[in-house]
């Protein structure tokens, strides 16, 4: 069987690791890497060590369109629409980093094109491939309260989007999966642009029609990193930490007034490799990708509702 010929577009902080992982997937052939910045290309070739000699390099992504079967796009969000659209129109399978696009209408258009052309179109919600998150999604029934903290320290990267599209979107995605995309009744969100012109810290309270209440905090100006997602349901609560790669399930025996703890950690898991393997296998087997454009659109829609509230509330309090 022929290998799937792949290119990675944008080999900055994240894309270089996409490139590295593709070289470790036997069913894929990393044919090319592309970046408008030749320094990023050189750094990535160094990371690829002896495999560097077989890899073509380009500064213009359009040149690789006819050469590949599939592409992974890890460029800044404002460029996602244009690049993904060109590959989809050319009939190529596309892995696109999150968030889908910087505007909802552009994201909708990309999803529509991928459906019309019946192409594998996977979005980079890497958290879904984290082992503790998989365990959480398997075990939680009827969540009543969700609390998520996703904090990062400030970097010069991804400043084309706010912290909602940059970080909070992962927790929105997981929540909508847990709630099976049920209807939302109420949103209140506040935030502030502190280091950049866009909100860098945001808190959102989202209440579903059935009463499930979610409290999301995302910051990209914290001193320490944190990735904690807690879910409370009747008689149990769950804590997932995707930095520690740990899972904790606490069951409450109300009669004995006792806690039963189930603690697991997954130090060896490699969610980036797993999501790219999954993408390649879906291309080969003709299966539906695990993170579809349609599902990514749902969390983007919620992100945009939160964004609007933050902007309105910020103006109100000024
Ligand atoms: P980065 O700035 O480090 O890398 C982006 C790279 O794209 C840069 O090297 C830049 O030179 C290059 N680039 C810009 N325009 C280009 C173009 N037209 N053609 C080719 N190359 C181009 O940013 P990053 O942190 O690697 O983020 C990239 C994307 O990945 C963003 O969409 C971000 O939201 C996403 N991301 C996702 C996760 C995740 O958890 N899934 C984590 C980090 C970043």
The main sheet orders its strands as 8-9-10-7-11-12-13-14
Quickly count the domains: 2
Distance between the termini: 62 Å
Attached small molecules: nicotinamide-adenine-dinucleotide
Percent helix:
25-40%
Uncertain segments are none
* Name of the CATH first level of the largest domain: Alpha Beta
Write the layout of secondary structure elements.
Layout: E1 4-9, H1 15-22, E2 28-34, H2 38-48, E3 56-58, E4 70-73, H3 80-89, E5 93-96, H4 104-116, E6 121-123, H5 131-139, E7 145-151, H6 163-178, E8 184-192, E9 201-208, E10 213-219, E11 226-233, E12 236-241, E13 246-253, E14 258-265, H7 271-285, H8 293-317
Parallel strand pairs: 1-2, 1-4, 2-3, 4-5, 5-6, 7-10
Antiparallel strand pairs: 7-11, 8-9, 9-10, 11-12, 12-13, 13-14
Helix pairs in contact: 1-2, 1-7, 3-4, 4-8, 6-8
The protein binds nicotinamide-adenine-dinucleotide.
The site of nicotinamide-adenine-dinucleotide (NAD) has 24 residues, from loops.
Give descriptors for this structure:
single chain, 318 residues, Dihydrodipicolinate Reductase, domain 2, 2 domains, six-stranded parallel sheet, 8 helices, globular, binds nicotinamide-adenine-dinucleotide
